[in-house]
Structures
1.
Amino acid sequence: MTGLTHFVVVGGSYAGINSARAIFAEAEAAKTPIKLTLVSASTHSYYNIATPRYLVEPDLLNEKITFDVEKSLRKHAGINEFEFIYATVKEADFDLKTVKYSKSNDDVTDLLSYDYLVLASGCRYSNKAFKLNDSHENTLREVLRLSKSIKSATNVAVIGGGATGVETAGEIASAYPDKKIHLYCGSGILQHLGERVSREAKSQLEELNVNIIPNIYYTGIETLSDGKQKVIFNNDTSKIFDEVITATANIPNTEFIPDRFKNAKGYVKTNEFLALEKYENVLAIGDVADKSSGNAVDILYYHLPVLKKYIQKNVFKKNVIITPVKSHAPIEIVPISRKGGVGVAWGWSLPNFVIWLLRSRNYGIPAAGKFL
Ligand SMILES: Cc1cc2nc3c(=O)[nH]c(=O)nc-3n(C[C@H](O)[C@H](O)[C@H](O)COP(=O)(O)OP(=O)(O)OC[C@H]3O[C@@H](n4cnc5c(N)ncnc54)[C@H](O)[C@@H]3O)c2cc1C
């Protein structure tokens, strides 16, 4: 025990890494070293945002799209003590101020005490290629498997009308115009971005010959003996595809958090300062928080400023006012092929040229290291 204020951060992706950087920087500014331990179920972070492009251009997996968490954070530690633990947190006790973690799949756990806890364990996804689940190698293996399967397929079903489903259908249809791509979009395409954007996305997908099927929901997927996949729908029909990609559900990684701190969907309930009610030394940052709209933009522009002020005030006793986390109109860019896509920022829809410049041309891959 060093006697330094101890921060424990759970999660080694956009939220965990940027929270750790912010905490280091605030301690440096206050000339008061702290100890920070980051526990993550993956040694590397993953630039998942470009996954739809990796699926059709798997050579991109050779680019810098994963980052060694310990190495990259060590550079930012400065005067502070830093430890990285590659492990899965199994239990958190906010009264005792401890977390229990396990380095392997057995039941053996170690205990870590904290003064401040940052929950940044994010969400996993319905398809393993799109997010870190455990090791980054497993995620990349799934991307590669899927890309090979798409290449040899004649017909592919993408299930999900949100950004991931739309981007994935657009990328495959554009890279492989001879394949038949079916997009099952439930209640509609990009509904959360408004009618105008939804219409524009639909028209761009139709230009790429994507077959858009609304108002049918899948209830199950069976893998057949020849490797094809049978999708069963809620209207008692089924259809067979060479490959099926589900892009439907974010599942919060909160199994280690007691139920009373979670909402009905499993996200961590926080107050307007991203702290837990009555446990103000515990914060939830990123996708895991109920105040998140599920994108990395939220973390960088809305969560981190709150975290920084919180540390200045509560840890370093500066006389600052913490501004509550703001709800805001969506900021989202959705590439639909290399040529462009759709997007909105603070209620304004963005022209195709801006979408191309900011995202479609290279999916932001060259700048990935800035955030991870
Ligand atoms: C295909 C796709 C495209 C996207 N495009 C965009 C985009 O263009 N712009 C945008 O802003 N957002 C985008 N997003 C959303 C963005 O990916 C998420 O907002 C972001 O990943 C959230 O980061 P996070 O750190 O909160 O959680 P995650 O990225 O989910 O990371 C969670 C971390 O916690 C670790 N972890 C989980 N459980 C435990 C545990 N029990 N113990 C220890 N460690 C644990 C994991 O290993 C991981 O390191 C996209 C998402 C997808 C799927």
Note: The helical segments are 14-29, 51-54, 69-74, 136-152, 163-175, 195-207, 296-314, 352-360.
2.
Amino acid sequence: MPRIGLEVSFDVENIAKIEAAGTDFRYFVKICCGNCGEITDWVYLDQEDTIEVKGGRGLANMVLNCKLCGRESNISIEDGSRKAYDAEKGGFQQIVSFDCRGLEPVEWECRGGLVASTENGKSFEVELEDGEWYDFDDDANESVSVTNVQSQFKKLKGK
Ligand SMILES: [Zn+2]
């Protein structure tokens, strides 16, 4: 079954890493039906939501019933796949991967829940406004920011 990774890229100022906080972090995505190509509106999945897949095929984080063709498909966050973004390294980095059965995510949007931390371990909640976040680190006496949020999905091998 296809595995798909979410790669993101951020421009930062005085930030060492960025991560999706909590196991209930919501990944807002648009999903494309693998059968007919219909794309959903924004939906979200989080790791704490599980739904039984029909036919005793285990659990998934989201089951989609395509509005156009009626095909049922599902998607789950892969266990242990969540990683923090290393700002020093920069560029696109995979922060999570999904197990996709009969569908694929095509767009991601960040709607809060990201935590950015400085080299000294001070952390900030990133509240993006028009895709940008600015704050001030009183301890280090310097500004901090996260801007230019970009994302892409990448098909992964294996499983
Ligand atoms: Zn469909």
Note: The pocket of zinc ion is lined by residues 33, 35-36, 38, 66, 68-69, 71 (CB under 6 Å).
